[in-house]
Amino acid sequence: MLLRLSGAGKFYGARQVLADVSVTVHAGDKIGVVGPNGCGKSTLLRMLAGLLEPDTGRRETARDTVVGYLGQSVGFEPAEMAMSVHAFLRQAIEPVEAMAAELRELEQAMADPAVHADAARLAAVMDRYSRLSARFEQAGGYEAPARLRAAAFGLGFREDDLERPVGTLSGGQRVRLALARLLLSAPDVLLLDEPTNHLDTAATEWLETFLRQLKQAVVIVSHDRWFLDAVTDRTWDVEGGRVQEYPGAYSRAMELKVEQLARRRKEYERQQAEIQRLEEFVRRYRAGVKARQARGRAKLLARLERVEAPASGPRGPRVTLTAAGRTGREVVRLVGVVKRFGDRTVLDGVDLTVERGQRIGVIGANGSGKTTLLKLIAGRLVPDEGWVIPGEGVRMGYFAQGQEDLEPDRTVLDHMLMVRRLSPEEARRHLARFLFQGDEVLAPVGRLSGGERARVSLARLILMQPNLLLLDEPTNHLDIAARTALEAALSEYDGTLIVVSHDRYFLDTVCDSLWVVEGGKVRPFDGTYSEFAAQRQSEQASEAAGGSGNQARRPDDGTGGARGDGRPGSGAVPSARRPDREHAARARRLAAQIAAIEADIARWEEEKQRWEAALADPGLYADGERAREAVQAHRAACEALESLLEEWERLLQEQEQLQAQAQQAQAQVHQAPAHGQTPG
Q: Which range in 70-84, 99-113, 190-204, 511-525 is most confidently predicted, on average pLDDT?
């Protein structure tokens, strides 16, 4: 055990954020922390770091355990702001450099004739040298300068950035710099709060590799499900102030959570049926020949330990996207498009065609021109050369990364009424689907959090009913429940979709082709992100094995033998891994639908309980009309709930069948003869 919280609880004023939390971090653990926005994940991490004292329970650390913490925002001292990037990073390896200096002094001492003449002194020097050498090697001392540059370059800094003063860096660059120094310092436990927020895909993948290979323990708060699946082997699910631990990375943990929820729901329903049977017996036979039996059953009911109704998980917005009208076959075409900002050419000679129904993900490094490309298609920027030609019947909807379309002084409700003529009641009902209720709809947008503003933008977009949807980083600031709901809606959207995103899990679930933006060019790739990543990994392995010039024999890249343009070759032998990726994409879409259904179940359960509480009030029946309305509303809630539960069970069965098919396909792959061999 390195770090432990036992029975820990935390209050903010009268609100209890965490209650009776008991978690342990062992050496080498890789733990992901997930849950909705505001559930207490960051509070949990700060308590583990010792930056917050628990109001109840206690925190324990093993002796000499060093804990490193990186929050979502970082602060720098004035002296640090004046340092160069290289000098700032060197602070992390100063202990190793001090060991190196002492080793050199000990080597000189061992070469000193005076030391050689004193056997006891020589033995002490040699013993110290032996122990210090072991510590130096364990700390990676021989590779320390190389590790410094690897961390800096891996997290997106260039050679000429190393001499820049820290004070000249942007906010995102400073967070990356603080992350690099923390990684170089190699504490026993790394606590990272949303470490991928300011990283592009290349830097995120470098961090994945670094953390996977790290021997130290890591606890990561993140909404990046691909990242969690790549790095972690345990999951803490924070919900309702409690922490539930599951073995496995995010995807496996959520499968286990769904299975656990299904078992608990069945157990709850069985007990409720038994309770109703006993209560009915007591009511019927309270007086008469079976009164004694009725009293016995009443005592049984009183002693019965009630099973709590299982929570259906965090509620996400209930998103339904509809395309108004049908476009022509060609939705938009870019011909020779060039875009410059000052002396810098961002896009140079881009030729692209988008056809109806395509679902395109746009990927590339930060600053490569992804947002510029989307704004050109949306008509918000004009190309310096070339043309952007919309097709017939195109109705565009644009989601801006920074929600700059929102007016800070206008309310949430105002923004809906500006899009479409709705009654205030209709607008409120629409906003309720995006978790805005009561007086929340009257809040000025400028006072909302990033996640809340993103939900306002999505709510506006849906009212527009576009048939060409342009989304620029739509999952930024959204928690996993909201991302899953958005994925479910986009999976069923019947229009054309172009989305810029660093969320690889989201891209793999929603998009079936990619545009790769790099060096001012845009390269189409016909396939999912998983297929793109597999091809790139294969190419890198091939280059490492034989150099880029050895192209005659390239190992199977998992894309069915892609040509140079990324599209599958006609004579290629299908890769055995492609069905696995298709199963994975189907499984993620199914999980998104299940999560959306669970959110609806939670809502209708609340509605049912509300009307049951109303029906239990004797005063209701003084007004016959109100009583009838309450009965009808309760019946409608029960019917909706029954229908949703049937659909939920059907989806669970489909999920189980999909898992069985995946296992069967995997078994067949293992049993199949190797390529080029004949069975027997």
A: 511-525
Rg (CA), the chain: 30
Please choose, from the candidates 648, 11, 10, the residue with its C-alpha nearest in 3D space to the C-alpha of residue 266.
Answer: 648
Return the CATH fold of 1-66+187-248.
Rossmann fold (3.40.50)
Question: How far apart, in whole angstroms, are the C-alpha atoms of residue 2 and residue 62?
Answer: 5
The amino acid at residue 487 is E
78/209 Cα distance (integer angstroms):
33
Residue 446 DSSP label: G
* DSSP output for 259-297: HHHHHHHHHHHHHHHHHHHHHHHHHHTSSSTTHHHHHHH
Q: Which residue do the tokens 């890591």 mark?
A: 218
Beta-bridge mates of residue 472: 500
Return the structure tokens found at 74.
């970082």
Taking the chain, what is the end-to-end CA distance rounded to the nearest angstrom? 52
Q: For residue range 555-614, what is the model confidence (pLDDT) as tens digits?
A: 333 333 333 333 333 333 333 344 455 566 667 667 767 776 776 787 777 778 888 888
**Spatial separation of the C-alpha atoms in residues 546 and 551, rounded to whole Å:** 8
With contact defined as beta carbons under 8 Å apart, do 475 and 506 qualify?
Answer: yes
What are the counts of helices (DSSP H) followed by strands (DSSP E) for the chain? Answer: 20, 18
Question: Which of the following CATH numbers is that of domain 578-671: 2.40.10, 1.10.287, 3.90.25, 1.10.3470?
Answer: 1.10.287
Residue 135: what residue type? R
Domain boundaries, the chain: 1-66+187-248, 78-186, 253-303, 330-546, 578-671
**Homologous superfamily of 78-186 in CATH?**
P-loop containing nucleotide triphosphate hydrolases (3.40.50.300)
Helix (H, G, I), strand (E, B) or coil at 342: coil
Residues 352/339, Cβ–Cβ less than 8 Å:
no
Of residues 370, 392, 391, the one with CA closest to residue 381? 370
Whole-prediction pTM: 0.69
CATH number for the domain formed by residue range(s) 330-546:
3.40.50.300
